[in-house]
Amino acid sequence: MFIATAFAYPIVLALLCLGAGVLVDRVSGGFLPSALLPALGVAALIAASQLSTYVWPVAQATPYLLAAIAAAGFVLGRTRAMAIAGRVQATGRLIVLPVLVYAIALAPVLAAARPTFSSYLVLTDSAVHLLGANYLIEHGQHYANLDLRNSYGEFINNYYNTSYPSGADTLFGGSARLLRIPLIWAYQPFNAFMLATATGPVWLLVRRLGLRGGWAALATVTTTVPALVYGYELIGSIKEITALPMMLTLGALAVAHREWLRRAPAGTIPFALAAAAGVSALGVGFGAWAFATTALLLLVLARELIARRERLSHAMLLLITGAVVALLSAIPTWRNIAGSLQIAKTIAATSNPGNLTKSLNPLQVLGTWLSASYRFSPTGTALQLTDLLAAIALLACVVGAIHIIRARHFALGGWIAAMLGVWLAATAYSTTWVDAKALMLSSPLVVLLAWGGVAALRASSSRLVIQMAAGLLALALAGGALASNAVQYHSSDLAPTGRYEELASLNSRFAGRGPTLFMDFDEYAMYQLRDLDLGGVDFIYPPLSLTGYVMKHGGVVDLDGISPAVLEAYPLIITRRDPEASRPPSAYDLAWQGAYYQVWVRRPRAPVAIEHAGLGGLTPVQCPLIGRLARRAQADGAQLVSASPPELVRIGLVQAHHPASWRRAVIGLRITGPGRLHSAFGIPHSGVWYVWLQGDLMRPLSVRIDGHEVGSVGEQLGGDALNPNTMAPLPVHLSAGRHVLELTRGGFTLAPGDGGLSQLDRVFFTPAGVSDETLRTTPPAAWHSLCGHAYDWIEVVRG
Asked: What count of other Cβ atoms lies within 10 Å of the Cβ of residue 15?
């Protein structure tokens, strides 16, 4: 699967986009630079996928439509395609630069050598895009048959049935379907590929500054992946990452306006497609960037008319053709423009900062940010170096602006000024969340302007000292951005592959047997369990039937807090495999157990418990409570059903010997740096025992008992800190008596996520081969036999 998603999928995407780009070039008059073809292919494919899903009965044909468009491009534009292939030197650059950017963007996944995605759970919006991309290709933009009683239906309805931008999702879902690969593993490669398509327009803009050869190549890479853009790509911000190459393509076309404004009206098709694709991907908010670029072109047209070098009728035809293409290419957005505007207004006005703890620092626009995350400020030496590199970049921007004016690159300078004007307007009139998006989209423009400073130095004199200064400036710009990206790579948490593969197997095994209650905070499960009509208690949109029982988003999930009568609506309950967690009510039997999850199935016609008393399983229950339940059972002709907790041997982490840098957290220890924890513990009887670790561990911990290696646990992250992330247990044979547990974390490595999350909450042992919890039925008359023992829960059940 790793080879298919990380290597085969981008090759398929490249063929689709290149073929579609050649087709756009053919229909628009054959003037497009080769570097723009992939990005314009993306624009054309977004338009096609939006139309095919809008006409929902043909939505499932979207993958084949995309392939047909690419094939048509290669057939109709075969002369252009062969000419591109024949230009070995130019084609080599066009291939190497996007491949290099793709490798940088996907570096955490490539280095992990497994299907996964990066910056796991920094922003869970990607879970929604996985869900939407699958739904839109399956059902199109048709929502009448959604079941709104559970989370799956509510998410689709509250996002995509309210004009939420879906341009990136339809292209993503349609292209991944061609290879029939899981969207969850294709998601990060898709984002990396979208960012790589930005190298084409950036290359053209960099060359317009006057840079050539290796200088232009280095400037292109740096401008495409500055620190803030890289951070957004790592968290899978698919809308912004897809809109970025569209914005840059508009700029490249604006700068090269002489190549197409005087041509036939079809010459406006590429510009209109890029503008429409940006609107489809990001929403009508992208109109600010598109309008600013269009206004610049209108000024150019007006100048041509005043100088009488252009006819008014020709200008009108250009405008009409562009407007018609833009409208048709983004018809789902324009069709419900009121809803689209409302979405944009809501996003722009929201006071919710999302995953941001504070507003981003404006200095991040300069490309360097030596922090593990764009959300947090650097500290110590990293902060001083960041400030120094920012000052150098700012000075380079000033020199670059002067260079653009002196070289009379008025179109380039006007476009950069217009784009920065949009950024400043967004900063002045929007809130934290939108400010951050605008800052990210503006970062490549500012970095491009800084590279204008390098171009100015190289053009000003051939003296060795000037050329050395240009080299040092280039080193500062490129080194700062790439070093920032390396820091983020090193701290990027990766999604757990095994756990999601297990969820996918459950979807195949139990498909159509829902609705299903999911007792874990993990909204990615909605895609992996998409055929089970899933409801999550602490999701953003919990099941409507659980309105009185839901926690806040990401809150602690407690199955004992939900009435058994309410649970009757769920034939399936999926829980994490956690010996400390509460078992579902007695009406449910364990139907399947894996390394991470358990599936509980409600028995046909199983009686609903009259009363369910959750007891926690930690302390013995006194007779008064049991006597009250017995009287209730006797009055209703019922029995007492009790669930006994499993045998547990717990390790006191805080009291154990561990490095001082492993500091106490709210629960357990926050692990920082290498070190070793060791603790003595006792085992009551010999046999095979399971070692269980709870927490979030990106960097592996080695587990040893009495000096013998038991195994290693790592790359295991959960939903959030409030709900336990119980990792797959390690079996070990132990004799009765005292033993010593050792947990060791090694030193620095270059592995992705080496500096990522490390939180150890609990460690405990349970005997293997023993049911996690056993049920016992007791007649009301014998209730005294239950006194003085610990129970997970006791129910009053008829029959």
From this structure: 17
Residue 93: which pLDDT band, with cuts at 50, 70 and 90? low
**CB atoms < 10 A from the CB of 512, how many?**
7
Could you tell me whether strands 597-602 and 758-767 are parallel, antiparallel, or unpaired per DSSP bridges? unpaired
Q: Match 């950069």 to its residue by tokens.
A: 416
Taking only the tens place, the pLDDT of each residue in 406-421 is 989 999 999 999 999 9
Domains and CATH numbers, the chain: 2-348+379-490 (no CATH), 496-606 (no CATH), 649-767 (2.60.120.260)
Largest CA distance in the chain: 105
CA dist 580 to 190, 501, 614, 697, 760, Å? 39, 24, 13, 19, 16
Per-residue pLDDT at 778 exceeds 70 = yes
Residue among 712, 710, 714 nearest 690 (CA): 710
Closest of 202, 191, 227 to residue 478, by C-alpha: 227
Q: Show the beta-strand stretches assigned E in 12-151.
A: none
H helices of 491-600, in order, are 497-510, 525-528, 564-567
Element (H, E) at 240: helix 238-255
* CA–CA distance, 456 with 474 (Å, rounded to integer): 12
CA distances from 285 to 292, 333, 343, 426, 446 (A): 12, 11, 9, 10, 21
Cis peptide before 515 (omega within 30 of 0): yes
* Residue 49 contacts residue 64 (beta carbons within 8 Å): no
Q: What is the pLDDT of residues 562-612, one digit of tens each?
A: 888 889 999 999 999 998 888 999 999 999 999 999 999 999 989 999 999
Which class for 730: exposed (0-12), middle (13-18), buried (19 or more C-beta within 10 A)? middle
* Environment class of 698 (CB within 10 Å of its CB; exposed 0-12, middle 13-18, buried 19+): buried
Give the whole-number percent of the chain exceeding pLDDT 70.
95
Element (H, E) at 316: helix 312-329
What is the three-class DSSP state of 101? helix
Confidence class of residue 335 from pLDDT cuts 50, 70 and 90? Answer: confident
Q: Give the up-direction half-sphere exposure of residue 670: CA atoms within 13 A in the CB hemisphere.
A: 9
**CA dihedral angle for residue 499, residue 504, residue 505, residue 507, rounded to 10 degrees:** 130
Fill in the DSSP letter of residue 584: P
Average pLDDT over residues 702-707: 94
Q: How far apart are alpha carbons 374 and 675 in whole angstroms?
A: 28
Residues 278 and 171: their CA atoms lie apart, in Å, by 13
Which residue in the block uniquely carries the two structure tokens 């079996």? 731
Q: Which residues pair with 774 in a beta bridge?
A: 644
Task: Count CA within 13 A, CB hemisphere, residue 693.
Answer: 29
